[in-house]
Automatic annotation (TrEMBL):
Pfam families: His_Phos_1. The keyword Transmembrane helix does not apply. It is found in: Mitochondrion outer membrane. The keyword Mitochondrion applies. The lineage of its organism: Eukaryota, Metazoa, Chordata, Craniata, Vertebrata. Its EC number is 3.1.3.16. GO terms for cellular component: mitochondrial outer membrane. This is Serine/threonine-protein phosphatase PGAM5, mitochondrial. SMART domains: PGAM. GO terms for molecular function: protein serine/threonine phosphatase activity.
Length: 223
């Protein structure tokens, strides 16, 4: 419900002022800027940790985050913000990346935490969470998609460049939803640690996927 027509009370406008006023109201509600969304998967972490606080980045993971931060800085873009998952591995990845992007504000959110977004189709044998996990995580990850992945606000004058540091399942689900692909296919994609996925959202709401899981900027022994 972000298209301009849905943001106007048509019944009220037609009674009061008619078609000319409707046209100017529509123009006022139209987005003007493009949003560039950079979805970063966290770096390699300690899989043996039982609790989230113990799942810290490995030495390789810290190197990966440095390389990702260098890559983002080298693009020469004016990043507006870094929004990151509150899980330890994403938080630590963000801290390293942000050193290469001084002055960019950071915002932590629970919405982007890892989880099971929707039951994959076809099913896989190696990963079968409890059904209740899809209901709990799925609603939250869908809320993250609706909250963060949308056309620019009509008040936004210039194109924006935003970084989201989160998790493979979340990114894969968001990509499927943004491209209007069946979200049940999210598990058919694979993303490396520290990879960059670039979505573009035009003012008319059209979405393009520029890159998916890019790690071409890393030496092969760091992937």
């Amino acid at each position: 419900r972000r298209e301009p027509l849905s943001r106007i009370n048509l019944k009220k406008k037609n009674e009061e002022t008619g078609e000319e006023e409707l046209g100017s109201r529509l123009d006022h509600c139209k987005a003007k800027a493009t949003r560039h969304i950079f979805l970063i998967r966290h770096s390699q972490y300690n899989l043996d940790g039982r609790a989230d606080k113990d799942r810290t980045l490995t030495p390789l993971g810290r190197e990966q985050a440095e390389l990702t931060g260098q890559r983002l800085a080298s693009l020469g873009l004016k990043f507006d913000q870094i929004i990151y998952s509150s899980m330890t591995r994403a938080t630590e990845t963000t801290e390293i990346i942000s050193k290469h992007l001084p002055g960019v504000k950071k915002i932590s959110t629970d919405l982007l935490r890892e989880g099971a977004p929707i039951e994959p189709d076809p099913p896989v044998s190696h990963w079968k969470p409890e059904a209740v996990q899809y209901y709990e995580d799925g609603a939250r990850i869908e809320a993250a998609f609706r909250n963060f992945i949308h056309r620019a606000d009509a008040k936004q004058e210039e194109d924006s460049y935003e970084i989201f540091v989160c998790h493979a399942n979340v990114i894969r689900y968001i990509v499927c939803r943004a491209l209007q692909f069946p979200p049940e296919g999210w598990l058919r994609m694979s993303l490396n640690n520290g990879s960059i996925t670039h979505l573009v959202i035009r003012p008319n709401g059209r979405v393009a996927l520029r890159t998916l899981g890019d790690t071409g900027f890393m030496p092969p022994d760091k992937i």
